[in-house]
Amino acid sequence: MRDCLLFFVRYPEPGNVKTRLVGPASPETVAEFYRALVEDLLDRFGQELGADLILCFTPAERQREMLEWLGPTRRLLPQRGKELGERMTNGFADAFTMGYDRAVLIGSDIPCLTSAIIRQGLDALKPERVCLGPAEDGGYYLVGFHRDGFLPELFDEPEWGGRGVFTRALERLAEAGTKVSVLERLTDLDTVADLGNMLDSPDCPLQGRVLELARRVAGR
Asked: Rounded to an integer, what distance in angstroms lies between the CA atom of residue 11 and that of residue 62?
């Protein structure tokens, strides 16, 4: 099996990244926090994943800056499409065109995400089975397909920011007769309240510079 991880990431330009975290902290501090969080996640995955890592980035014209930021050896793939669902569909289509058998797609704002969870998702994938990682806000932070069971219609989602995204995904998969492996529920960092709740948790995964910046973003 050829496996890959599609890591969706945005170039950390102040004012254009994690804008819902702007408040107690400036757009510049939020962008700095996001930059550190992405770097921490990539370092954490390291070589443990056993799958190729593809950075699906946006905006497409920032490829040179992305390479300067994350290193010239990274495999980059511009996100294609206007809406999130279209970009996710195209990411999977590109991965399967490259010859991968199984692919998992994640966002870049899930501090509790581990290589073990991603590996669990990849190993669950079969033509008749997908994997989903539910998020606390009602969406999902991870989705994966086998190339012979890819269902682009899963991404025909009218309201990506709503609380019913995960539930509607399960309903679509049930209608298609597709089985689902549901992974551990995790928190993504969309708002200052999300970040505050994570900082208050005894199991907060943030450490070092990421933790320092998170406190600044949360106004602490």
From this structure: 7
* Amino acid (1-letter code) at residue 108: S
Say if residues 147 and 101 touch (Cβ distance below 8 Å). yes
Cis status, amide bond into 152, omega within 30 of 0: no
Q: What is the pLDDT of residue 47?
A: 65
Rounded Cα–Cα distance for residues 217 and 220 (Å):
8
Residues in the chain with pLDDT < 50?
none
pTM attached to this predicted model: 0.94
Decide if 56 contacts 6 (C-beta within 8 A). yes
CA 100 to chain centre: 19
- Quote the CA–CA distance of 168 and 16 in Å, as a whole number: 28
